[in-house]
């Protein structure tokens, strides 16, 4: 199979199984990652895979590639991405390779990897894997394989530092048949809450709905069950367990930026470092509320490899991005874990008599579009973004260019950026009135259509 350069993306390696990556690709990626890891003076890595149907075969060949370079492998088998992150720290390798395509459709698969146990490789580090493969400059050796089960230590990590209050919480959680299906029931069994599972049988064909909890349509069944059972909240997980979505007691979706508002209202007087990182897609209501709480806002580029690394660098007690990645660092290691994020909201609710639907009272009202994806060619999208930047500059707009172009107005914003996970341009618009939202959206949609 010819190696396809485009699968080596900004945050990870990702493509359509058999069409863009296969077992041979996995073997070569294992050899390249092992070669690079050894150059850092490390000879051991954790390896795990999600429950996509193609994952076990890809993992087998990846492990063979790693051991053929002389890297010793701690093999977790089927695990969520957060379990893989935790294992890398727990076993002291501070290096990991996770086989997953995260929220992509079932025909995709891919690889997230870390050399330091703090954040995943991104940018140049991902491209280096491609360069090592094409140069065929592999290390050689004979590594070992050690099988480990991280389940019990991971459950302790999630539950030991939670401090539930007197209110007994009823929660519905939706695994979407993703990889959280293998662990969520066991976590909830360790908590004094009433839990109602949905689609908690592992099935990598995702027969009930696509496991992306940040798209409202994927939360329909969760919403229905919350209302039917009169639950206090609903929690949805993505395919590999590192992202989260929420439904309140009235059946409304709580986007991640608004979840961070709720959590910061609870945390701001409990932490010393009052700084919050969030990505460019988040609502301005988050910035407004942080300022009210005297928490410093830090707006950053999208991409969990970037936001997780920067949240660690700034030592923010809590940071995240609209796509559902949330990083707690007050009493957790700081990586994105959908199950843990849900536990922190349960903890908060157990200490108040207020319903979840009331915990956003008083925030500034903005009208926002969902994230809008426009299909385009991978080799064309960055050129289009440069044209959008030029337009914003010509109009004299206050424009943030850390990630695409975000034109900031007194009454809203327009964000146009290139997706780093697929051949798309993504847009999001926000304004203080619906009419102004329509106006901003039309201006930039018309602009984009000139270049597509």
Task: Please give the order of strands in the largest beta sheet.
Answer: 1-5-4-2-3-6
Instruction: Count the E strands.
Output: 21
**Class per helix and strand makeup:** alpha/beta
DSSP summary: helix tally: 13
Work out the radius of gyration: 22 Å
Largest sheet: 6 strands, mixed
Structure summarized in a few sentences:
The protein has helices at about 25-40, 55-65, 80-90, 125-135, 150-160, 185-190, 220-230, 255-265, 285-290, 305-315, 340-350, 380-395, 435-450, and strands at about 15, 45-50, 70-80, 95-100, 110-115, 145, 170-175, 195-200, 235, 245-250, 255, 275-280, 295-300, 320, 325-330, 365-370, 370-375, 400, 405-410, 410-420, 425-430. With about 450 residues, it is of the alpha/beta class.
Structural account:
By secondary structure, the chain is of the alpha/beta class. About 35% of the residues lie in helices and about 20% in strands. The strands form 4 sheets. It has a 6-stranded mixed β-sheet with strand order 1-5-4-2-3-6, with helices on both faces. Strands 16, 17, 18, 19, 20 and 21 form a 6-stranded antiparallel β-sheet that branches. The protein has a 5-stranded mixed β-sheet with strand order 8-7-9-10-11, with helices on both faces. Helix 1 crosses helix 2. The model has no long low-confidence stretch (mean pLDDT about 95).
